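> run fold Hippurate hydrolase
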Amino acid sequence: MSSLEKLIPDLDALLPELEEVYKDLHRHPELSMYEYRTAKIAADYLVRYGYEVTREIGVTGVVGVLRNGEGPVVMLRADMDALPMAEATGLPYASDVVTRDEDGVEVSVCHSCGHDMHVTWLMGVARVLSENRSTWRGTLLAVFQPGEEVGVGARNMIDDGMLDRFPKPDIILGQHVMVGPAGTVGHRSGTILSAGDSLKIKMFGRGAHGSQPQTSVDPVIMAASTVLRLQTIVSREISPLDQAVLTVGSLQAGTKENIIPDNATLKLNMRTYDEGVREHMLGAIKRICCAECSASNAPRDPEITTINRYPLTVNDERASTRLAEAFGAWFGDRAYETAPAAASEDFSVFGRAWKVPYVFWFVGCTDPQVYEQAKAKGKINNIPSNHSPQFAPLLHPTLRTGLETMLCAAFAWFGTAK
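> ok
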């Protein structure tokens, strides 16, 4: 009997408690870098089960250390933050939280990315491993990270001395709830998540009355032309054999229909899978924005600032092979090789900083019947995905599967106690 098989009764007994934890976290989401309540729940839980706990790392980050004899150091990571958007799932435990963001703007908040599930998974695994120390040997780092949605949480923890304050991991493991049949796990070697860059571009014009456009330099026309031109970067400058996405998600200008404003602001996001492609696109964005401003006779060049940046998530080949074998042995055909996703994560910041291998994978959360019906109709893209206001993971078996994947991965390194 494997170590994980011995823990099945513990998982069965733990599920009702974790379901309540999940629902509570879901009802009480917190914005990036303001995860004070969530962090306290996680930290207090780790204390209860014998971990050495350090709080407030990189503002709200939590690290729990459980030493259990000689053996590898395994780091398990969960992110804690929610999104500034209103929930529309209709769940009985849906969020109705409204707060103010860092700019003082009133926003709704909800867990439409699934980080509440991630926190619940890691809390459950932390308890199971603490209560079953005879099944493994080594040191566990349980890391609850803030600010993933804004791309600063992992870096904040690193900059707060994480590398010096805790044992260096031999492997760093993480997972994400995603659209896919609940009960399945998708893994792959190499690139699994794209690099992500978000930019803010402010364009300057000269304001005037709407009835006298000849006296203006119209930043609305400037911005509109730029939006259209930016779409040619992927379609005309990037090889069809390379993957890239560029989306302008925000265009803000003016206050009234008969006033030509002084400026306009674009916010865009790009995803790439190759550093050369990324650098080319960043250069092209600057070139196009400056050229459109010049063509409009703008009084000055645009201001281009970085909102956030996510590196590529590239799973270590040898570690991925070990993980694939473990998943295959435990889940059978419920474990499969997934394609890369066009999402981005700052999870790899930990592995890059420590210079150790890391592996990231996906856990399906969609009702299998709903997924198969959508697949048969060619409408998988119609299933509400992460960041949709209707995103609602199927609680069971998603909760159980995420516990099993994380434990299965940890045991691939901890092995069986001697």
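The longest helix spans residues 275-295.
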